[in-house]
């Protein structure tokens, strides 16, 4: 059992902290936000994540996890400090490392015994070398502090499961001491551990995320070609998936990838390559395809309808994927302003994303068009002239063609997630447009 401090209580930090506690370590999660700390102490998770709250409560009651704003107290006694703070994108596509630097300095000024600083946040290759030097510069006490890289591979919506049953744990270290300590911390998880140097670990994270982004953009590119030549991208993906070298996952064409990771990490790697005067053509192509893909469905609908002015437009799904209330880089944020510009009267439904969306677009009238948030898919669809599907939530997947036909004024559906068989929609008389498939 080790004393672990975790800096940052977002998806990466909080989930890591809770899972370390679940494995028997004594964890203190640190955040600068007093309110957030209070909420977490009361057993409430600040993020929507399956299974997280239960584990928070269980481990808090067992005394294995606590939450604090007092970083000094948390860091001074820790065997390891895990950093899960954000590295948001700067306007030029590079990663903002100011949160990392702040925590690194706090650690350097607080630690009173040997301590491993483990960076979980996604950072450009070489950053952890800099963080290590930075910490040595500010170290106050005569103790050994070293930095390790331990990138995170959890996906939102399945974060706890992904952490407890990860396919691999990547540890990037520069000494046997650091490698052994991290291996011991992860021992209770009983997962495959890949031990490499710090820079390779940092690169594994970017190379993995960008490969997946590339895979999705490739399928979106193929989908657009399928439409032109009369092939069906879902059949194509299914045929490809039998080849184990390709695999079955991340072959779904759709409205483009969103979220806090793929858009940011593709741009960050491209930026890193540019800094080294290297033209990273593949990743650049993934970014370009994705930018176009996000509004391709809207363009299709605009061609079909000419204008949205005075039309009731049902929007099903706002978040960047199901299982999360996160809206970052969600395709809904690209499409809703375009629909409003065209005077659409939007009736939007999402099981958990409405609160966050309403913080950006409050309910009411705009200079053109309007937005109303509704509590059910049926309410959104009732008397609608057209429907857009942006997120494949289960309750949306379970809708039948008959329901579209019965509820909508004109059963015209633009589906960015290829949820339904085209044939069943056609049989029921629903005009159905999706991605990479015949209408
Ligand atoms: C992604 C990675 O999957 C995680 O391994 C990684 O740890 C995480 O980024 C991160 O860097 O923190 P996440 O962004 O939570 O996780 O979500 P994904 O499930 O990967 O989905 C990303 C986007 O791709 C979503 O918009 C999703 O709808 C889209 N997608 C996914 C497709 O369009 N098609 C697919 O076949 C799969």
UniProtKB/TrEMBL annotation:
It catalyses: UDP-alpha-D-glucose + 2 NAD(+) + H2O = UDP-alpha-D-glucuronate + 2 NADH + 3 H(+). Pathway: Nucleotide-sugar biosynthesis; UDP-alpha-D-glucuronate biosynthesis; UDP-alpha-D-glucuronate from UDP-alpha-D-glucose: step 1/1. It is an enzyme of class 1 (oxidoreductase). SUPFAM superfamilies: 6-phosphogluconate dehydrogenase C-terminal domain-like (SSF48179), NAD(P)-binding Rossmann-fold domains (SSF51735), UDP-glucose/GDP-mannose dehydrogenase C-terminal domain (SSF52413). Pfam families: UDPG_MGDP_dh, UDPG_MGDP_dh_C, UDPG_MGDP_dh_N. Keywords: NAD, Oxidoreductase. Residues 314-422 form the UDP-glucose/GDP-mannose dehydrogenase C-terminal domain. Its EC number is 1.1.1.22. It comes from the Bacteria. Belongs to the UDP-glucose/GDP-mannose dehydrogenase family. NCBIfam families: NDP-sugDHase (TIGR03026). This is UDP-glucose 6-dehydrogenase. The lineage of its organism: Bacteria, Bacillati, Bacillota, Bacilli, Bacillales.
